[in-house]
Amino acid sequence: MARHRPIKTMHPEALPRRLLAEAIGSMLLTATVVGSGVMAQRLADGNAAVALLANTAATVAVLYTLIKLLGHVGGAHFNPAVSVIESLRGHMSWRDTGAYALMQVAGCCAGTLLAHLMFELPLLEFSTHVRSGFGQWVSEAFATCGLLLVVIGHRRSEDAPWMVACWIGSAYWFTASTSFANPAITIARSLTDSFAGIRPLDAPAFIAAQLLGAIGALLISRVLFRPGSAADTLTDIDVQGESAARKHPEALDV
């Protein structure tokens, strides 16, 4: 009779600690995206290119910092698409993924409220920024697919922060959608009528495209990356934490 194999996870930390890290990281990431967009729009004097450049720089910097800061606690996903793919790869239980996604959405929405408080904007509002159309949806699928390929395929855990930050920063500029690539932050950005916003009506199509892109990345990775590569073997810690004393978990080893 085959022995049941426990679901692997790279994170020996207790679930509540991991969830707190996800909530805090998601909040700070979104506050930066929304807040820097507000600041950029105010200072750019109508120059959208300058505003986008400022928004990109702030996002890249905070994303790198947050992954370095919180990656060893819970993986620094800050993104339900990342958590879902980790479950599909057998590295995380679906129960934990559901909890992660809930905290990511809550944290991102809290980040929008925090940005509004800092810039003295109405606390609750809905975006009127239209982001719709085939090109936008393809952009979101492509941006999320690339992000997940980076997450799955990076060979050294210490490379994850800069690789993820660089992908998102570049995708701000080569996609028509400015690369949301995250269902949780898409929801949160529908709650701000600012530079970073998206109409609530347009958010579901963005999220669907993001999830399709994530699934595409998983399928591509199974062909592109051979089994047993560093991106796979670094996750070999089971739920009981048997190897916790021998390995120090790092960011985004999913």
Short description:
With 254 residues, the protein is mainly α. It has nine helices and no strands.
Question: Helices and strands in order, then pairings?
Answer:
Blueprint: H1 15-43, H2 48-74, H3 80-88, H4 94-118, H5 134-153, H6 160-174, H7 183-189, H8 203-224, H9 230-233
Can you give a write-up of this model?
There is one protein chain. The chain has 254 residues and is mainly alpha-helical. The chain has one domain (15-233): Up-down Bundle (Glycerol uptake facilitator protein). Helices cover 62% and strands 0% of the residues. The protein is built from nine helices and no strands. It has helices spanning 15-43, 48-74, 80-88, 94-118, 134-153, 160-174, 183-189, 203-224, 230-233. Helix 4 (94-118) runs parallel beside helix 7 (183-189), helix 5 (134-153) runs antiparallel to helix 6 (160-174) and helix 5 (134-153) packs across helix 8.
The helix-strand sequence is HHHHHHHHH
Number of domains: 1
CATH superfamily: Glycerol uptake facilitator protein
Distance between the termini: 29 Å
| Shape call | globular
- Main β sheet profile: none
CATH class membership:
Mainly Alpha
Helix fraction by DSSP (H/I, runs of at least 4): 55-70%
- The CATH architecture comes to Up-down Bundle
Structural class, from secondary structure content? mainly alpha
- Give the total of beta strands: 0
Unreliable runs? 1-8, 230-250
| Beta-strand content bin | under 5%
Output the number of helix runs.
9
What is the name of the CATH topology? Glycerol uptake facilitator protein
Radius of gyration: 18 Å
What's the rounded overall pLDDT mean? 88
